Amino acid sequence: MKIDDAIEVVKPHLTQKRFEHTLRVRDTAVKLAEKYGESKLKAELAAVFHDYCKYRSLDEMERIIKMDPLPKDLLKFHHELWHGPVASILIEKEYGIKDNDVQRAIYYHTTGRANMSKLEMIIFLADYIEPGREFPGLQEVREVAETNLVHACWMTSKNMISFLMSKNAIIYPDTFYAYNDLTIRTNGGNN
Ligand code: DGI
Ligand code: FE
Ligand code: FE
């Protein structure tokens, strides 16, 4: 699918704010792809569709998770974790986008996972550092993103887990697996 068509397809599914976020994730992902030698086209497509299912009804997402080969344990965790996996399935069903690299980047953009590919890391990071976001510690992550993709993803994962723990949120295993794996990849790990 051409990127301009993808943007038109996604737009009616999002609020104006979320659409603008999506365009900024796209710009950020393209810059990261150029910097780190990843396919610009895949980064763009994954970025444009990453939040495609953000506003699907909980019933619809639940039905898709139950029917498809998605892990059922998702249903025991917060529904914010559902939109990536559901979008990775629906873009293939609805638009014939069958590209494992792109689908995985969309699938894991919220939690990350162990052994993320370069494309997965680019989308995970772009979603966090796009210029419309403002969190404590974000500027530092943006600076590191200029030179070290793995280290910037590790910081993102660490910040996210700290944030979730500060809210007493239940943390999905892939979120921890991402952190552990990135810790090993970035500094060997301490223990
Ligand atoms: O869709 P976006 O708002 O652009 O961003 P996102 O898909 O990265 O994150 C959606 C939300 O999911 C965000 O508030 C953080 C939250 N989240 C990420 N990992 C976990 C999580 N929430 C819970 N409960 N557990 C997690 O492991
Ligand atoms: Fe998202
Ligand atoms: Fe997003």
Automatic annotation (TrEMBL):
<keyword id="KW-0378">Hydrolase</keyword>
<dbReference type="InterPro" id="IPR006674">
    <property type="entry name" value="HD_domain"/>
</dbReference>
<keyword id="KW-0479">Metal-binding</keyword>
<dbReference type="InterPro" id="IPR003607">
    <property type="entry name" value="HD/PDEase_dom"/>
</dbReference>
<keyword id="KW-0547">Nucleotide-binding</keyword>
<dbReference type="InterPro" id="IPR005249">
    <property type="entry name" value="YqeK"/>
</dbReference>
<dbReference type="GO" id="GO:0046872">
    <property type="term" value="F:metal ion binding"/>
</dbReference>
<keyword id="KW-0408">Iron</keyword>
<feature type="domain" description="HD">
    <location>
        <begin position="18"/>
        <end position="132"/>
    </location>
</feature>
<dbReference type="Pfam" id="PF01966">
    <property type="entry name" value="HD"/>
</dbReference>
<protein>
    <recommendedName>
        <fullName>bis(5'-nucleosyl)-tetraphosphatase (symmetrical)</fullName>
        <ecNumber>3.6.1.41</ecNumber>
    </recommendedName>
</protein>
<dbReference type="GO" id="GO:0000166">
    <property type="term" value="F:nucleotide binding"/>
</dbReference>
<dbReference type="GO" id="GO:0008803">
    <property type="term" value="F:bis(5'-nucleosyl)-tetraphosphatase (symmetrical) activity"/>
</dbReference>
<dbReference type="InterPro" id="IPR051094">
    <property type="entry name" value="Diverse_Catalytic_Enzymes"/>
</dbReference>
